[in-house]
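Write out the bound-state structure for zinc ion.
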Amino acid sequence: MAAPSAAQRVIIENCAIATVDANDTEYASGHIVVADNKIESIGAGKATEGLENVVRRIDGTGHLVTPGLINTHHHFYQWITRGLATDHNLFNWLVALYPTWSRIDESMVRVAAQGSLAMMARGGVTTAMDHHYVFPKGSGDLSGAIIGAARDMGVRFTLARGSMDRSEKDGGLPPDFAVETTEGALIATEETVNKHHDASFDAMTQVAVAPCSPFSISTELLREGAALGRRLGVRMHTHGSETVEEEKFCHELFGMGPTDYFESTGFLGEDVWMAHCVHMNDSDIEAFARTKTGVAHCPSSNARLAAGIARVPDMLKAGVPVGLGVDGTASNESGELHTELRNALLINRLGAHREAALDARQALRLGTFGGAQVLGRADSIGSLEPGKLADFVLWKIDGLGHSSIADPVTAIVFGAAAPVTASFVNGKQIVENNRLLFADEEAIARDARAEAQRLARITAQA
Ligand SMILES: [Zn+2]
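---
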């Protein structure tokens, strides 16, 4: 019988390191030892001499190493509907785009997922999520296409299987032809969890139950969705408190604000995270803190749709877990997450708290450990600590954009987007010098243009 093979080690040395652990431990010059897919050791100075099975040694001079960025809210399919309805608020923007979105098919969704993932991954995202909630009849295996795109690129991934069942005829926003039945949505969601969700420590694919938003789903779907998520032991996700119009909608239809409505249906809890949470009063924030419900803060999208400024400093102070989200690229055309670190910091300084709002390290924490918390994976990702999964990024900070900024974390948060020299997921390198190792960017760009044009054509002919 062959002896079990020993762990293969990769050593990264001579780099600044921001671990984002509980004490915000940092090293001006340190090392990380990766053994297979986990971090074995991390510390100041060089790695211990004489380690066995070292297959690669990386000189990190001129770099800051951080945990990989974690995206907590997105809609990949929107990659092929970017740059439309550019001067609309949320409700008008949705009504303008629903007819286009409801004509997507599997081929379009696959290419859009590749585009969304590629843009994030080459900018330092190691864990992505996609909240997909448009499932036109006969459109194929959309969930399979999205999950396959993430797997091929090597990105850790959560699919939030969304759904809509409240259309115009029921007082909702989407057109009647764009929604599923309540029962159909629940059955399909359960099938997706059973087929794709991996609960293990180093899972590359997880699935969450994710009815879309109060104005596109029935109360029954929200309530049954929460029950389904808890029965299956997976997380739940939705949009909430995004705009004043949504707040008004909830008061008119349900006689209460969005947070009270979610709580009344069981859709708050430590197994729930919610996108936006812009219009939250003190008691809403208290409810999130009490139930440990997470928040996906999407500053660029909130600005693009003139939704408002989420009270992130108050949420953090109250103990609410907060991560960052790109949101769909029809409301954040850049599709990048690293810029959200800076935008979270800047936008919150325009809010009620001014200069005391957030600092660079808090912004980095939102984009890393905060994301891991809201995705329910704080034990395995989000910080660089022995025993955690080897998901990390080498940011180049000795070039034109950053060399004159003394503090490395300030450099990558306040400065221009830092070049990604290398990005590792699960111990495997997926980006080298800002290029994806397992995807062809030019091919994706070409295919995305063709699919965007095909979708526009189909919509125009309908
Ligand atoms: Zn969204």
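---
The longest strand covers residues 9-18.
The chain has two domains: 9-67+383-436, 69-374.
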